[in-house]
Amino acid sequence: MYPSTNPPPPGSHGYTPGGYPPPQGYPSPPQGGYPPPQGGYPPPQGGYPPSQGGYPPPQGYPPPVQGYYGPPPGGYHPPGGYGPGPGGPITNQPGVQPGGMDGGWMSIPQGGINCPPGLEYLTMIDQLLIKQKVEILEALTGFETKNKFTIKNSLGQKVYLAVEDSDCCTRNICGPIRPFEMKILDNYKNEVIHLHRPLACDSCCFPCCLQSMEVYAPPGNLLGIVQQEWSLCYPSFSVQNAAGETVLRIEGPICTMSICGDVEFKILSRDGETQVGKISKQWSGVMREMFTDADYFGVTFPLDLDVKMKAVMLGACFLIDVMFFEKTNNN
């Protein structure tokens, strides 16, 4: 007997007794839909183990700074290598470039054990150039003013300034034989060398009253004396130390007139046999020579000469200048 082809009656659940049951299909979704998944897959117990043999994280990095960061309190510090501030040692003259021909000051070298303060500049010098400043009033009127000098080394760097200290009447009445004091200053205007020239005659007819120049460094401490020696033919001087012992000698030419050339005074050894240096009055040009008494001088001496004697030779240069090349009323 074949199953009936008529549709099943209601409530029969879709199948006919004695026949094949129809496919069940998918049940209807519950009221309100399916609930969402609960939390996804649970993580493994104890977390994921770290990878074996991987690259270790970099060590020593600081934690990242959160938010905006400004300059640290007190501002940024300068990078390393900057020189000392105002409180540090000063080895160059202030306000100028060290060295060169632009009028800069000489750097301060390391002084020796027995070097008087202020003479450190002379330890590394074997030549000095002395230039007298032109005074306009003196050039136009002949009225004698205080002499001023700039002292430089062979590179053109300033070493000292020299300023005459004398009164007006003495300069204009006594002329070249006048007594005077001279202050030699460093770049800080400190007096490092003091020169004293007493009043004396410059004629060979009075051998008992000859010219001299006393050199002090620091002021009040005698270093030496430049003493004129009596001579009929040519200028002669002895350079003495503080004990009065002759260390060097100076001899000049018979004619000390500067005519289109230099005038040289030889610096000799104590016995007068060996020349070790010279003091030269350099030709400064026709106009300067005719209308002023502002002169150029050069002093050379051994590099290893005692620094005290180098200062005394500087005093000898000023004595030779005032004795032979200082003019009265620019005549």
From TrEMBL:
Protein name: Phospholipid scramblase
Cofactor requirements of the protein: Ca(2+)
Domain of life assignment: Eukaryota
Similarity comment: Belongs to the phospholipid scramblase family.
Example of a GO cellular component annotation carried by this entry: plasma membrane
Gene Ontology molecular function, alphabetical: phospholipid scramblase activity
Residue numbers spanned by region Disordered: 1-102
Entry keywords, A to Z: Calcium, Lipoprotein, Palmitate
Biased composition (Pro residues): 1-11, 19-47, 55-76
The keyword Repeat is assigned to this record: no
Chain's role: May mediate accelerated ATP-independent bidirectional transbilayer migration of phospholipids upon binding calcium ions that results in a loss of phospholipid asymmetry in the plasma membrane.
Claim: Lipoprotein is one of the keywords in the record: yes
